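Contributing new records

If you add data, match the layout below exactly. Sequence lines come first and carry their own label; structure lines follow with theirs. Keep one chain per record. Anything else will be rejected by the validation script.
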Amino acid sequence: MGNDNLIRTCSIWRALEVIGDTPTLLILEAAFQGARRFDDFWRETRLLKALLSDRLKKLVEAGVFERSLYQERPQRFLYRLTQKGCDVYPVALALLVWEKNWGAREAGARSIRLTHKACGHDFEPVAACGSCGDDIDATAVDWREGPGVGWMAPLYSRRRQLRDSCGDGSLLFVEAAQLMGDRWAGLVLRSIFTGIRSFDGIRADTAMATNILSERLQWLTARGIIRQAAAGGAGRHEYRLTRKGVAYYPALLMLLVWGDRYYVSPEGPPLLLTHKSCGGPLKPVMACSRCRAPLDAREVHFELEADDGRLAEAV
């Protein structure tokens, strides 16, 4: 059991430390749409240039991007996704699906049409179990602590307050990026998904200051992600997921997979999942809804709907 100064570690937390803020997620979205140069990223995200430069630098340091010089005077660079960066693609797909089904559609927001080159069909990405191929239902997943679980001191940072720092670019998953981009909100959802629903239980699990936790719970409630429910005692209540919150589960799962791949402890994964439907280990993948094959960014063709409703191929 942890104490008031320690947070239960898991691959979700470790992954959020790298990509868990809104500007970073929007930069990654732009990269998957083909952005390579600084001006391309700025045009897509409309982030403040100093903020954009800072996040690109951090992504290079984290090994998510590699930077190469393409012009000497003045110096200009290309930013390309490494394999580690490409492996964030399932997270982006899960966020895209959630945004399409549950996000608040704003004026000027674009939509996207996906075609799977391997089977030749337009498709919707679906979260599937790699063991049996069935769709993943959050209620059909068991979990237990793995050998890599532990406790660590949380790192407080002003970056946690940047969940609403989107530019005015034309983006595909604004609300989804704001949700995943607030790492404390992500930890609250992690707690609730693992059955910890009381205020005191969530606080002990996340090591959040009381005022921060109260604000995050209020924000998630206002967004329709969680709701309060009576908990048996007079005046006692707990926090439960709404349908909108349950639908966010695949995004956390894909984040867990990425964190397990690149930030797992030497002892092993901190969390072990079992798919109750098939009885096997849950190996989450984002799959093609038509042929059920796991998706790779290089095998997906996409077209973006322009403001006038016409489809324009992204570059």
